[in-house]
Amino acid sequence: MSEVDSDGTDVRRAVVLDYLAHGLSDDGRPQYAKSPAGYALDTTDFRLYEVAFDEDERLTIGSEVAIEPPAERDIVTEANRVEYDALSSGAQSELEYVVADLVEEDEQRFVDFYNDAQPITLRLHQLNLLPGIGKKLRNGILDERKRKPFESFEELSERVSGLHDPDEIIVERIIQELRDEDLKYQTFVGRHEQEQDH
């Protein structure tokens, strides 16, 4: 890491979803003036970025790069937030795999979501925002976590009857939030940023 990292500056990193060696197709400049570009997904709060890359660097899909603050960028020369619809088809098809990897790498964070999820309103619980989790599964999770917090996805599916693939449920919800900007509740996308704004 870098010195700035160690003094507490928040360095935002992203995973490259698509690398376009010849720049973005909607960049009207002549070919020689375009820099390599692509799309990336923030590793912490799953924001999507359109990025321009240093032309001397060769990158592969799945590489991790620093996007913020600008002083920390080594390979990225520009980064702008975009919506799901702005992604290339290559980036869209890569998205689910990258999100699944990030969820797996940070398993504890997402297991803790199952441990810590709270009611949003009298009728709606955070757990009900997850695809396929209705009243029965929600109650099963709540009852089990009272006894003892969950420590892994595997333990979640062993202890909660009917809860298969708790990690895939999280991935599905993140993809849902990325695709539909108008969802009333954003559980994972942009959460890190919202917490820092408070």
Automatic annotation (TrEMBL):
SUPFAM superfamilies: AF1531-like. It holds the Pfam family DUF655. InterPro entries: DUF655, NA-bd_OB-fold. Signal peptide: none annotated. It comes from the Archaea. This is Adenosine deaminase. It comes from Natrialba aegyptia DSM 13077.
